[in-house]
Each structure stands twice: as structure tokens, then as C-alpha cells.
Design goal:
elongated
Length: about 70
Amino acid sequence: MGRSLVVIGLAVAALGLLWPLLGRIGLGRLPGDVYLKGAHGGFYFPLTTCVLVSVALSLVLWLVNR
């Protein structure tokens, strides 16, 4: 369990460091991401981005545990 938490922590840290680069290639503003804008603010939920990140992390963890 400890090894899995370390791997997950490192993956999240790497994603945080790479986020500006990923934003330049379009990750974070994909079709399917929900953005609602109102008079007093807005709401943004990156649904498609979450699905892609989830698939990528699942693949990485599957490869690590193999």
C-alpha cells in the first residue's frame, strides 16, 4: 500500500509540474468539458480531461503492478 501511495504521489506531482505544458497543447479545454458562465461568475468542470487523465493513470498503474 505504501508503494502505491508513493507512486500516486509522484504521478500527481509530475502532472502538476507538467500542467502548464499540457495546457498549451489543449488539455483542459477539450470538447466535453463543461463551462457555465453566469452574471456573477462561472463554473468549469473538465469532464473529458478527467476521463483522459483517469485512463492514463489507470494504464500507468496497471503497468507498474504488472
